[in-house]
Amino acid sequence: HLFVDPQHFEDDHRLTVNLLATPFNQVAFNDGYHIIHHKYPALHWSEMPKRFITQRELDLHVEHDAVCVKDIDWFMLGALVWFGFWTRLVTKHFVPCNQKQADMSTQDRIKFLQHRLTLIPSKQAVW
């Protein structure tokens, strides 16, 4: 998982990211709706996009400071993070989920995502 909030790692909205508007979802059983997948593991993959766009889910994504990206698959997302192409990630792929994220500068968005890569000490994380 990418972009896990180290202070709220048990919150499904903050333990992964959604990949939106990507052809990847059509060939990977909507795995890009990863927050939805974690919240509703029994939900059939074909229902994930419909669940994501419900007002309740959109409001929860706003409230819980979820991370969403668009037009990218898991491999390229990981590559951009791994190789440090942060500006490209936040200017071309980052989708603000709330007004706080929308108001962030490019540098603030980079810091926000980098913070979500902070190591969670094993004594905190109970998997």
Give a brief description.
With 127 residues, this protein is mostly helical.
Task: Give an overview of the whole structure.
By secondary structure, this protein is mainly alpha-helical. The chain is 43% helix and 8% strand. The protein has eight helices and three strands, in the order βααααβααβαα. It has a three-stranded mixed sheet. Helix 6 (86-93) crosses helix 8. The longest helix is centred in the C-terminal third of the chain and has 10 residues, at 106-115. The radius of gyration is 14 Å and the shape is globular. The mean pLDDT is 95.
Spell out the key features of this protein.
mainly alpha; 8 helices; 8% strand; 43% helix; three-stranded mixed β-sheet; 127 residues
Broad shape: globular
Whole-angstrom Rg: 14 Å
The side-by-side strand order for the widest beta sheet comes to 1-2-3
The major pleated sheet works out as: 3 strands, mixed
Q: Report, as a whole number of angstroms, the end-to-end distance.
A: 13 Å
What is the element layout, followed by pairings?
Elements: E1 17-20, H1 24-27, H2 34-39, H3 48-52, H4 55-63, E2 67-70, H5 74-82, H6 86-93, E3 94-95, H7 99-102, H8 106-115
Parallel strand pairs: 1-2
Antiparallel strand pairs: 2-3
